[in-house]
Amino acid sequence: MRVKTGYTRRRRHTKVIKATKGYRMTRHRLFKVAHEALLHAGQYAFAGRRRRKRDIRRLWIIRINAAVRQHGFSYSHFIKLMNDQKIAINRKMLAHLAAKEPKKFVSLFQKIVSKTTKKKK
Fold first, then answer.
1. Considering its fold, how many domains does the chain have in total?
2. Could you please report the per-residue DSSP string of 15-64?
3. Position 57 in a domain
């Protein structure tokens, strides 16, 4: 005897159709198309969560570089000086200082640069 999956199938389909609400054309209406769209959306979301971390780090580096270049240094040189002096401030904090609290960033920058000029003499 053949078993029809009426209730179970309808529940599964409803779940997918609800999840694809707002998708364009048949992607929110037809189960097969909606299910495929939902799978792809999941893949894009997974990749996007990783990409967001990269993008934010790039933004921090851009902000630090812009702040440091105003004083005639490059980002890479500044980071090297910090590492040489074993100053462990992460890029997120540096970018925050550069964007929101420039006076504190300048004082930190001058401390780092002054220590290296003293060593050279």
1. 1
2. HHHHHTTT-SGGGGT-HHHHHHHHHHHHHHHHHHHHHHHHHHHHHHHHHH
3. yes
